[in-house]
Input
Amino acid sequence: MRLRTLAEVVDHLGASEKTGTIDGTEIRVRRPAVGRKDRDTFISGKSKQNAVKAMVVTDGGGRVLWCSPTRPGSCADITHARQLGLVRLLAGGPVVDLADAGYQGLGAQTGGRVVTPPHRKFKRNAPDWYEERYGRQRKAHSSRRIRVEHGIAHLKNRRALARHLGHREHMSDTVRAIAGLLSH
Output
């Protein structure tokens, strides 16, 4: 089954009653030439390198279902998800998506359909029982969403995505083509 849009992925997960997992990944690219007006937009705040970001959706088994078009590295994960229309698509569906801390806030906007790791309630002087419970909750969440990390690793095993040396304009097509090969 070929899933070409995010709406098709949400419909597929809702019809099969499966849990999807979303995460963003960064792919290093060449730095734009001196004098270009958008030279700073590709600098990622996370890795402090020139990169583009793509959002990947996998199923419970870690199979890549869909990969988004790339955005500049300075775009936050939650902003990328909102621009793709994820909030609108999940508003009426029974799909539960697991996400990392980069997507905190989407759970409230989608009626609890996006599950993120728990927030830390105490910044300082937390009771011992809270630290233990907080650690268990985060470990349980990360062990459920490790499959998306494996799906991203399969994407990045391809030499074209290890470090892209071609034009950034073609990067989106390259990422989506490799994701299509993996999901087929």
